[in-house]
Amino acid sequence: MLYTDQRFTGERALFNISDAQINSCIFADGESPLKEGSNLTVDKTSFQWKYPLWYCNDVVVNDSSFFEMARAGVWYTNNASFTDVLYGAPKGFRRCDNLTLTNVSIPQAQETLWHCSNVTLTNVSACGDYFGMDSENVVLKNFTLRGNYSFDGVKHITAENCKFICKDAFWNCDDVVIKDSYICGEYIGWNSKNLTFINCTIESEQGFCYIENLKLVNCKVMNTNLAFEYVKNVDATITTDVISVKNPISGTIKARSIGEIIFDDADIDKNATDIVTQE
Q1: Which of 137, 77, 130 is nearest to 106 (CA)?
Q2: Is 25 part of any domain?
Q3: Range of 230's domain?
């Protein structure tokens, strides 16, 4: 079934359609226009109202736009890909499985990508707080994010050639690998386990605390203080100076220099952490 150059209004305008191509259409006022749809191909189409793609399966969206009022736009939808899309609405992409975003801009990404699984984001830019919460099996390539409290509770995430400007990023996580990326923000990685950073540039006030199994490989850790507090099993090779290190529990920390090493918790054995500097 083919829909071309049409404007739709009203609730559930094309409810429960399947095997459809939608080209150069406008979904104006009216909630849930494509709810329960399946096997849909959408090109050059604009979504201007709430809940456009709920409970859908097998959806391809190309060269299209989601307006600010297309809030909570893609929920409970599986096997969906979005390419060359401007996604201008908050609270997008929740409880989706097998989701691919390529060349997508999300300028209002508040509370976006929650509880999703098997996600690949390539050449995606996003701005908004609480991005990516409780998602799993996530692959990020050339991804940029400006927003706080990002990726809280994620499991099994890899990131390469990415930029993150966000405080409290990667809290409560398990199995995070970040390569060749830039990260700036306070309190990175708290209450997580199995975090690895390779060839990254990192700036963080009180970064990397309350972590089990933390690895930094050939990383620049700049303008960072009170780092590694209560970290168990740290293995850090840092190519720059660190302002201060505080109360690491165990492991090895190598840096060009460390301005101050603080052990003020009597329960921590300072000999359990090997701290090595060029000085």
Answers
A1: 130
A2: no
A3: 74-277
Residue 246 neighbours by CB distance under 10 Å: 20
User: How many domains would you assign to the chain?
Assistant: 1
pTM: 0.95
- Structural domain contains residue 212: yes
- The per-residue pLDDT for 279 is 66
Instruction: Report DSSP letters for 116-172, one per residue.
Output: -EEEEEEEEEEE-SSTTTT-EEEEEES-EEE-SSTTTT-EEEEEES-EEE-TTTTTT
Q: Is residue 160 in some structural domain?
A: yes
What's the average model confidence in pLDDT over 275-279? 86
| For residue 78, pLDDT beyond 80 | yes
Distance CA 246, CA 86 (A): 44
pLDDT band at 274 (very low <50, low <70, confident <90, very high): very high
CATH number at residue 249: 2.160.20
